[in-house]
């Protein structure tokens, strides 16, 4: 890339907006929906961050929010030892929206009263709107004898029974007199229901009303602006140094490759590692879609490394899923360390870490989350490794990653490819990993995905894959008895991958997939279908 090319690219991608200038602070009281609140805010086009409920005054002042949202939570605000919002936020002069527990703590901290309810509300509820407060003006699902109403989602046992001074009632239900409240003069609002969930039909409009009309945000958090901002940050961080990217062909690493290609051009070298735990024909597909000479506009330089023997040797006999993840992650690092030594001026290692990875690994700086499972690309690099991490997607949700992938010009096939875990088949083979098990699983997974595409079901599921179970089951083929392994099929539907429902695939389809797997793969005698939702299960089995 010539100097003139670099200047032209800089001019082309220079962001005219500071996309972090408008920001909403979400204080987390432990709700299962807190991440969903953040997604709804960002979908409206406003940047937000989630911080713990006990954020210090200095940290809040430094954040300088345009508005604050208090999340729900599992505790009872009626107890003296449960969580409270930092008192100083009510003196900042910015709008505040309390949701469920957030409304209750706002009420009790400002002089109102909250009590346990004899009739708890969980699930669908009808809220009657009784005031023209700014938050709910002209928003309704219909009218009845009581006037305007909203169909909403409730999840609470306590309720506000007396409003603080200066507050008025916005809405009620048959069992909750104060289902929404406001102090228009200070811009304080509380809703007992959850506007962030899809079951609240006008929830998106309510969130937009708070963010745009009440907080005055212009909505600068758009795919185009995000791309420009990331490119600017990458150039500032990397300078004229070389970056190595572990390219898997999945959505996240492909979007990182596209971003870095746009930002630094031929300073990027992609390394594709065959760890022996890939999907069928994975390496060939990645080169075809993204490599030099491909039809893709990025024409990336990709080095392929065959490390199958190294990975499988280190994994031999290891059953614990966390230990397997750590071995795979550490081996990846070792491979990249070896490759970086061969590439002149390689100072950075890029990774496709996204926000859910950080959340599930409790890798956020506030340390409030519980560890569900560790991720190979979260947590930094060992001291002996000379490379510095570049993680341009670290604050983005999966849907945001897909949107900026399309913005960058990646094909639909790449951007909407189902997620594939960093440890690959290593966490889809339960128990010890071997080449035999990986080969059987690869074939079964390929048949499942092939049939999903043929039935036009692939894009209707969010993630689908096969799992190898280390147990044997009796089967009969012809007149011969077979005692062979079991495959489980998993398919889910989800918006944010924080919660998911098992995909209700047609029985005839499942029968066809099962028949093909058992008939075409020697070593498999039985196929099952996983109908667990998240929570309580996770999407992956390990």
Q: Can you describe this structure?
A:
It is a single chain. With 542 residues, the protein is of the alpha/beta class. The chain is built from 15 helices and 19 strands. The strands form three sheets. The chain has a ten-stranded mixed β-sheet, with helices on both faces. Strands 13-12-11-14-15 form a five-stranded parallel β-sheet, with helices on both faces. Strands 16, 17, 18 and 19 form a four-stranded mixed β-sheet that branches. Helix 8 links the parallel strand 12 (268-274) and strand 13 (302-306). Helix 6 (223-238) crosses helix 12 (398-408), helix 7 (251-264) crosses helix 12 and helix 14 packs antiparallel against helix 15 (507-520). The radius of gyration is 26 Å and the shape is globular. The model is unreliable at 1-15 and 362-376 (pLDDT under 50).
